[in-house]
């Protein structure tokens, strides 16, 4: 391995953290929109918000601006692990496999890029799943304690399994997003280079196209992931059970049966609006950090 192979991991993690800070309030509105309207969950039957803007305004007025950043620290911790592993693994695998091809990796190879991205996304998301559970619980408003107390509370009430709740759809979603987002970005960037060059405008356009594709592909799994992470299955039998869904497929079926197919796209607008700026901030930051190579 070369002496610079560690840099995609470091730059990927740093760029992910910067992007997370810049777009977190949009993610909070997305999470709250996805949770509401569950007819079989008595805690979230009510449709409190009509859309992203309404959720943003009501949350700010009723709970304060600070509530929009509730869960930011587990989100930052997640990006420090997830972002570092995901982008570092993708670019390292892509480079290693490209070097074995006849063209030496000079030409973008879509199947190779897609495979590398899916592996990197799924692996990194599974490892970082506990931080995602903490983030969702805090965004919904069920957990008002700090990061460490929230972690201990979930562990005591639900055990280790509680920290990996929803790991299936989370990993599937992450693999799907990465498999669409990263190869599309690389392909668009390569196609636009003759016209725009390897410049910020190229990175901006490629980021927007990549985010649209990943939002369409991943939102249904994101809804399922959010709902599974938000439910509880406490170890103490004296507390009432709150397990609504048995797993990914059951959550899909129950959601469509009780709320209709479009319920799988709850929070699509904030998802896309967050992915767009997130990708723009990430890739612009990443490309600038690459200048240190």
Structural notes for this entry:
The chain is mainly α and 293 residues long. Among the domains are: 1-69 and 266-292, no CATH class; 72-99 and 108-165, no CATH class. It contains ten helices and no strands. Mean pLDDT is 84; it is low at 234-238.
SSE diagram, text form:
Blueprint: H1 7-35, H2 52-63, H3 72-100, H4 110-127, H5 129-140, H6 147-163, H7 167-196, H8 200-230, H9 248-259, H10 268-289
Helix pairs in contact: 1-2, 1-3, 1-10, 3-4, 3-5, 4-7, 5-6, 7-8, 8-9, 8-10
Would you kindly provide a brief summary of this structure?
It comes from Papilio xuthus. The protein is mainly α and 293 residues long.
What letter string, H or E per element, gives the SSE order? HHHHHHHHHH
Q: Which structural class best describes the helix and strand composition?
A: mainly alpha
Distance between the termini: 15 Å
Helix % is over 70%
- The beta-strand count equals 0
| Tally of individual helices | 10
